[in-house]
Amino acid sequence: MNENIQLIESFIxxxxxxxxxSKNTLDAYQSDITKLYxxxxxxxxxxxxxxxTNYLTKSKLSLSSQRRALSSFRGFFLYLEEQKQIKNNPCxxxxxxxxxxxxxxxxxxxxxxxxxxxxxxxxxxxLRDRAMFELMYACGLRVSELVSLTSNQVNIYNENILIKxxxxxxxxxxxxxxxxxxxxxxxxxxxxxxxxVKSPYFFLSQKGGAMSRHNFWHMIxxxxxxxxxxxxxxxxxxxHAFATHLVQNGANLRSVQLLLGHSxxxxxxxYTHIHNIRLQxxxxxxxxxx
Length: 290
Known about the structure:
The protein is mainly alpha-helical. It has two domains: 3-82, DNA polymerase, domain 1 (Orthogonal Bundle), CATH 1.10.150; 109-284, hpI Integrase, Chain A (Orthogonal Bundle), CATH 1.10.443. Helices cover 58% and strands 4% of the residues. It contains 13 helices and three strands, in the order αααααααβββαααααα. The chain has helices spanning 3-19, 23-40, 49-58, 63-82, 109-117, 124-139, 143-147, 177-194, 213-226, 237-248, 253-260, 265-268, 270-286, and strands at 154-155, 160-164, 170-174. A three-stranded antiparallel beta sheet has the order 1-2-3, with no helix packed on it. The protein is globular, with a radius of gyration of 22 Å. The protein starts with a helix and ends with a helix.
């Protein structure tokens, strides 16, 4: 095996065994570092600072992707330094590019309701889709949390779900009665039809396996188009709507942070900006001196 590939894989194994990172995070690390190696095609232990900055500027990555890649490189070269494969971390003095926080486009409650009502719940797939949309909007889940949800994490009797978020941090979220009814209907009917073989996952694909993030994204885009919604739809559209609507209705920002599973409240504060922008728009449209 190529020595560079061996070093990358040993780093990924180290991160997995020591930090309990998610598969998606580990895959991102591996992809970032492999692309750097493929770009220069040389022994990875001989990389210099200039070669890394050259890659970042010439790779046509977005600023946020450059920041993520640099974070991957820093961790990797720090690992090589600790393993005495290199003497100095070439990323040590590279500053990440500054990224302005973008405010996600969010849906109104009426638009959310259109998407929630779009699936035909008389069909197996439609009932599953409705249950996924309901739960994501009711609890503000990340897509990765939604598709990886197991049946053991859904406690219909106690009206809550156990979520294992980023860094394996756990949080328990309440489920509203209307959402519980849809989940129970899905569990007792559609899920039994989808489960070809025994599966721990709560939401199942047509083939009986776990739903993928990619499939969920296509699913929500399809229903949004059917509803005539022309806004930019992302996999986290319903999560953004959950947070925005809570803030609009007076929820405490700290509570929203805990519900979303944000480690830093500054990440949650973007939803207050969305609310303020809407207030400004309403004032301009309806106030005599707006």
